[in-house]
Amino acid sequence: MLLDTFLSTTTERFVVIQGENLRPKEHSLRTIPTLLVSLTALTQSMFAIAAPTPLTPQTAEYQVNYGDIELGKAKYTLPNPEDGVYKYRFDSDLSLLLLTDVRHILSEFTQENSQLSPLRYLQQRQGVGPNYTEQTAFAKAQGFIHTRYKDEKGKFPYEGEIFDPLMVQLQFRLDMAAGKEALDYKMVKDNELDEYKFHVIGRERMNIDSGSYDTVKIEVVRDNIKRQTFFWMAPDLAYLPVRLTHFEKGSKQLDIKLLKYHFDEVVSQESAPADIAEQPQVPKLLGTTEG
User: Fold this and answer.
1) Is the residue at 4 inside a domain?
2) How far is CA 201 from CA 215, 217, 219, 232, in A?
3) Is there a domain that residue 233 lies in?
4) Which domain holds residue 192?
5) Which helix (H) or strand (E) holds 241?
């Protein structure tokens, strides 16, 4: 939801053109067949192909446009967890004339039932303008969150359910799949605590170059009516977002469309109990002694 929306990274982190912080004229930046998953048991086998979930290993690539101008591409990658820790990645390479913006983001988190808990968040930005690194360490056991953004440190209490700007997208998808009605999230970004709320508008058929999708249309709830953000998520694709549009004063600023995606096959074995991974240590912030 990073433009104040699409769950942090699909907007702000996704974007390089941001209403209040980045002015377009100054920064202008800052195959795919429908997935058919069989639930029919394989003949003479105890294994079955399971439908994808928001945490199924996956990749998704998007085209990022400023209005009708192509800026570049962005990619999300979620591999299998390692020792109970998920590592969700976001990579983008955007450019307009001589302006460039390259970002690499990594979110590490764990899962307990349908709830995700953040461990560490790292963002690296390079391009025209100041380069910077953002780091966040979630020390839940100690009750604190340690941050570093553009060489400035921060410290916040770890209270209730909280997220980083990237993995919150997966929590949002899990909540949509579970039919939750309260869609509001607290997250840490830019050395600040922010809250985001979302409103489900309804179902809509979305036709884009990569295909035609049955989707749920969602709007970011804002007090500022001059800024509007909408995105469309496909229930058949584990609520994978297929499009996002952002408007400033009624003019389309950002348009992000799904180019291609891939879910790894999930093979389930009913008789095999799930392993319970030991809670990992919270990694330290790079260049510090904080835990």
Assistant:
1) no
2) 11, 5, 7, 10
3) yes
4) 63-263
5) strand 240-248
